Amino acid sequence: MPKTVNISKEELQQLYKTEIKTTKEIASLYNCSRGTIGRKLKEFGIKNNFRYEINKEELKKMYIDEDMTSYEIADIYGCHRKYIISRLKKMNVKVRRHKRKYSIFYEQKLTEEQKEIIYGGMLGDGHMSYHHIGENSCRYLETHGEKQLEYLKWKIKKLDNFISKKTIAVSDNRFNNTFGITPTYRFLTVLHKEFVPIRKMFYTEEGKKVVPLFKLTPLSLAIWCFDDGSCCGGKSYNFYTLSFDDESLNNLLIMLKNDFDIEGKLYERSWNWKDEIHKGKMISLDRRNSIKMYEIIKKFRIKSVEYKLDNFITP
After folding, report:
1. Mean pLDDT of the region 228-257
2. Are the beta carbons of 189 and 139 closer than 8 angstroms?
3. Which of 77-86, 140-149, 175-184, 289-298 has the lowest mean pLDDT?
4. What is the mean pLDDT of residues 257-278?
5. What is the DSSP string of the chain?
6. How much of the chain, in percent, has pLDDT values that exceed 90?
7. CA 259, CA 244: separation in Å to the nearest integer?
């Protein structure tokens, strides 16, 4: 039941119209909610305070032609954005669900370079998270350790037009030994329809990450290498594919062979995680195939991940 407040019309008129106090300020004086004061204003027939009368044609011009947000218009008129939304609806103007900056994001399409970066990331440290049913339901995100921070910033720059929040999230890993005790860094994109087919491509209906057959480009190969590759003393190169199933691993071997004439082999590895023994398979390239891979991806060298290639600079 709405709270009642003992205030007369004259008192409310004095506070709201003469002293120009807001409903929030009056509610604070009477220890009640803004809604209670709003109902009293309506009950007493006291009109709302606004800086200016809002002209319908002017409102349409700002919202439709000038593409201003309800927040920006409300700031001009000194009212709440909900009042602007209400006026627009009464004028049968279709109200945008999101702020203007998001409508700009939603008009973007992934370039071929961006797709190649994301495909390579999906083989490595990238994830495509699903949030809700709808057109714009997926976003791309990555997490890296401190050693690869500059590499992460390079990816943010490449995917810039799909990233709203340019700051990098930092996680404290003192209680999570996945990355040791050093901080980890993460970025994520906006929810976007361009990511939906990629999510369907790389995940089962149950949400397990898999690898389908697709055209592996030199850039995608380089990203996979920088994400999950490891140079073993210049003698071989390993990809940490431990979480992939056998079909995904076989598809990766096929793509390496068909697209680059690189031959890889699988070998099993076991490791201890939280006092449990886990087993998986890694893809390994011998020195000849490692050098072949290096010649393909060396043009994409990024300073913070050069350590993953340095042993192959002099074949």
Report:
1. 91
2. yes
3. 175-184
4. 87
5. -PPP----HHHHHIIIIIS---HHHHHHHTTS-HHHHHHHHHHHTPPPP-SS---HHHHHIIIIIS---HHHHHHHHTS-HHHHHHHHHHTTPPPPSS-HHHHHHHT----HHHHHHHHHHHHTTEEEEE-SSSSS-EEEEEEEEGGGHHHHHHHHHHTGGG-S--SPEEE--TT-TTBTBS-EEEEE---BGGGHHHHHHHB-TT--B--------HHHHHHHHHHHEEEETTTEEEE--TTS-HHHHHHHHHHHHHHH----EEEEEEEEETTEEEEEEEEEEEHHHHHHHHHHHGGG--GGGGGGTGGGS--
6. 33
7. 20
| Distance, CA of 67 to chain centre | 24
List of domains in the chain: 26-96 (no CATH), 109-203 (3.10.28.10), 210-315 (3.10.28.10)
Task: Using the predicted structure, report yes or no on whether residue 314 has a pLDDT greater than 70.
Answer: no
Q: Is the pLDDT of residue 144 over 50?
A: yes
Mean pLDDT of 111-119: 97
Q: Which residues are registered as beta bridge partners of 247?
A: none
pLDDT grade, residue 173 (50/70/90)?
Answer: very low
